[in-house]
Each structure stands twice: as C-alpha cells, then as structure tokens.
Amino acid sequence: MRQLIAGNWKMNGSLAMATGLANALRAATTDGTLAGGALACDLLVCPPANLVAVAAQALLGSAVAVGGQDCHAKASGAHTGDIAAAMLRDCGATHVIVGHSERRADHGESDVQVCAKVVAAVAAGLVPIVCVGETEAQRLGGQAEAVVAGQLVGSLPEGFAGVVAYEPVWAIGTGRTPTEADVAAMHAHIRAVLVGRLGPAGAGLRILYGGSVKPSNAAALMALPEVGGALVGGASLVAEDFLGIARACRG
Ligand code: PEP
Fold first, then answer.
1. Ligand 1 centre and the CA of 110: distance in Å?
2. Does ligand 1 come within 6 angstroms of the Cβ of 69?
3. Percent residues over pLDDT 70 in the chain
4. C-alpha span between 65 and 62 (Å, rounded)
5. Pick from 29, 61, 100, 234: CA 20 to 30 A from residue 171's CA?
6. 8 lines ligand 1 (CB under 6 A)
C-alpha cells in the first residue's frame, strides 16, 4: 500500500508562510529533487482553515493534496467559528483530520461527535483522517489497546472508508516516540479492530503513525508492518524536514 505523509500545520502560519511552504513542496515534487525523481508516497498538507484556499491554489495540479484540520458535523448554520466540510472542499481540500487529540482535549470532542464529523466529511466528498491514541497514564496502566479500540468503535461509522491515524497523546510534540515494537503491536491491533468491524475492507485502509516523526526516525517507523504513512506536526512546518520524512517512505 502506498504510504501517505500528511502534515498537520496546527495553528501556525500566515499567508506568506503558506505560500512559501506550498511553493517549496511544489518545486521539490515537480523538479525531481524528492527521492531521485519519483515520489514514493502520497503527500498532504493540512493548514489552518484560513490558509486552506491559498495552499490549495499554490499546490493546484501538483502531487501535494490539501486538507482541513477539523470540520463541523452540520452542513451549515448557526455555528460561529466553525467550518463545514463542504466549505473545505470548496476551498480545494480533499481530506480532513477529525478527532485529533488536541480537538478532543481542547474542545471536549467525544467519539460520538467525531463519528458525526466523519459522516459529514464523507458526505462532502472529503477523505477523513480519524485520530486515535492513548494518554501516557493509559499506556502505563496497560489500557492502551482497549482505549484505542474503544475510540475506533466509537468514532468510525458503518462502512468507514477513510484513513486512521494512531497518535499516542504523550508522543505528540514531545520528541518522544513509542518503541518500534510498540508501534508495530498497536498498528496490528488497529488492523484487527478494523477488519473485525469493517470486514475485508478494513484490511485495505491506511493506518498512519503520528507523534514526533522527524527525518531521523522516519525510515525506521515507515518500515514497520501496517504503518501506512505518518501524520506529522512540527516537522511539517519546514519543507526540508517534511520532504526528508517523505524520502524515508518504503514506497
Ligand atoms: C500531530 O499533532 O498530529 C503530531 C503528530 O505532532 P508532532 O509531529 O509535532 O508530534
């Protein structure tokens, strides 16, 4: 399965930064400086909502897709400050992250709400990237697999056909990562849950790893079985780092 490297810019950026970063990615994926000419993976950047259109315009026709970081479960209406999935699509997005741990923590998003957002994203023609992952206390308490299974069952609607991102909360932005054995074990567990819930279709879904991925650890992480790519936060803000992670893909 071709891997996906998705950048989550979070609440960072400006018009100038988005244009510069998008142009750098466009140039690197067009002139062959990435991986000796052939892109070995799919690339996606997810800027904050105000920069989706400018990034999509800059990357139009390139190998780099654009996504949102969240969407509302409703198609439109009185939801001040929110953005609908169709609005992201209208701006040129093809994907949307839902259920990121920062949304779950900062906005109290439940699995039920995440599931409704997934349904809305799909209805608008977006590919949802659904984030799951345990806290450090849950891992230390031996609950990581049960927590992740519960999030998957609660967040994925019937017939789910998007992407899952495993992001241990304690690894996000900390410079810490699980051991390769722990990543492999959790991805195998997620695959089993997906197949149990979705049948054979669950075997073909990408499961991304996220949490302090950088060029120096990407090759080892991307080589693990059932790792279908990476969701990258901090390192996605620097073109050379993001491209360095893309170069580490196994193809
Ligand atoms: C993220 O927020 O999705 C993430 C993985 O962040 P970082 O790469 O900075 O740990």
1. 20
2. no
3. 97
4. 8
5. 29
6. yes
Q: Is 100 known to be catalytic?
A: yes
Question: Could you tell me if the CB of 132 is within 6 A of ligand 1?
Answer: no
- Could you give the CA distance from residue 240 to residue 8 in angstroms, rounded to a whole number? 15
Question: Angle at the Cα of 16 (from 14 to 17), degrees rounded to 5?
Answer: 65
| pLDDT above 80 (res 142) | yes
C-alpha closest to that of 231 among 143, 135, 101, 124: 101
Closest atom, ligand 1, to C-alpha of 174:
10
Is the CB of 175 within 6 Å of ligand 1? no
The span from the CA of 85 to the CA of 135, in Å, is 28
| DSSP line for 97-155 | EES-HHHHHHS---HHHHHHHHHHHHHTTPEEEEEE---HHHHHTT-HHHHHHHHHHHH
Q: Which residues contact 91 (CB under 8 A, 6 or more apart)?
A: 52, 53, 56, 66
pTM of the entire predicted model: 0.97
Q: Can you tell me which atom of ligand 1 is nearest the CA of 100?
A: 3
Smallest Cα–Cα separation from 131: which of 162, 165, 85, 108?
A: 165
